[in-house]
């Protein structure tokens, strides 16, 4: 049976996958490619998440693509606008027609003898299994599980008479107007949901076991507003983008080097946004340092407005049990609720849950070390996109896609058939350097970092620009080959003999 073959197979048609395909078309003219997407639409996260108020938690001048300017001064954008931006980019760059929807990749096997991957996908609309081969496999599925959010078991949940909803699977028919809502959680999703639901609910209570750091920022970038009035969009965009990159990097470095100063700055900002008698130290004083977990952005202070106006409240306490009519807290206090939202986080699933094998040996992703945060030790002609944790996802995604294109062009020029990062590097920590719950629950399944570059990430866009756009491709850590090793040929002959 002859299988369809493409030079590059991209998995995922979200923000990263569409960006990867655009880079490939722009920088590797003549390369054949296809995009496999498990869902039925472009957009990934931004098509899946439909809960009230869903929006970016990074500014759109850095979350947007480097080659496709975000068109407005509105920097913190709603989910629908982001979804439309990704789809428009796909159309403008001729990508939309290359996407095969309802194709969930379940496994990929690399053959050194053939210098190619055989990729297996399930067609979710028909149930059939599809096989393709490719020279390079580029996975852009993010790192969380799409079909299931993290939902801890709460005692008594089966007794509650109202709906219990996880934001990742928001029902279209949920009616909470004029009702009492409890949102469990303190992360970005909870901080987004509370003010959005408070506009029509009778009251929204956010129940948090412990607080997160929260920073209010204007939803509209004032510098962008001025520049977009006097400059063409393509001229204004990189200026605002670099301004935001540098400001974000400065704030992150201050957080790591002067955490006490940043804690005081954030707490003073919250104090200024809430009534003078509000207990900020109970509800907005985390136990960890800034950027040990992601910072929660509050556009235009909407969360604080909802609390100040009495439409929302924050309770810091443990949960003892759900009751028929709400929640009983560890302190004994009872919260009445008509609906409960469990904004309790994500489940991590590397490479979309697909299995990988190299010459018949299964790749245990949690036992690999990540090269430049984008390739796996010992895995040939393979890359994955994992964005920054301290900045916009797309800043890193753009760098990864650009690097893959550089790598492919370099291999063509030198006549290399495949490349792979060195196979044995001592791990020195998890790839995602956060102390968030979803990371801590998933350390065993995530790739590791090594002790130093190129095996270690520094979460520093400026350093990564130099490393990935201008650094050497043949750096001693990456192994290139023009031909199949003799051992692989012998193995192939033995397999043919057995047949």
TrEMBL record:
Sample GO molecular function, one term: N,N-dimethylaniline monooxygenase activity
Record's keyword terms, sorted: FAD, Flavoprotein, Monooxygenase, NADP, Oxidoreductase
Co-factor requirement: FAD
Signal peptide boundaries: none
InterPro entries: FAD-binding_MO, FAD/NAD-bd_sf, Flavin_mOase-like
Family: Belongs to the FAD-binding monooxygenase family.
Protein name per the record: NAD(P)/FAD-dependent oxidoreductase
Species, as recorded: Nonomuraea cypriaca
